[in-house]
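ingest -> validate -> predict -> emit
validate: passed (alphabet ok, no gaps, 118 aa)
predict: started
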Amino acid sequence: MSGKPTGVIILALLQLINALLAILGGVLILALIFMMPLLGMLLALIPLIIGIIGLILFWGLWTLKGWAWFWTLFFNFVALLLGILSFDLANLTGLINLALNLIIVIYLLLPATRAAFR
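emit:
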């Protein structure tokens, strides 16, 4: 085993899933840009950038970097708030994203998780 607390491993993997879903969303938007090329490319940049940031955060969590705890909490808390403000029961991907962000924020705030990043 790597010596990492189980909660940190779970947290990092959830962040990885979240990042990969964002990148997938950006790629799907890019696949549909034939309808509106410029607007589609601009809309695809947002989830792609979020996904790349998420991959960086995953690496930081996996390697127990101190900065990763704060920035992961910040980005997932903002995403959680935005998800709550745009809540729609019919949007399955939005619900999955909302759940992932909530779980990540809760995990980050657990005392054992915080201690692992000090």
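The chain has a mean pLDDT of 86.
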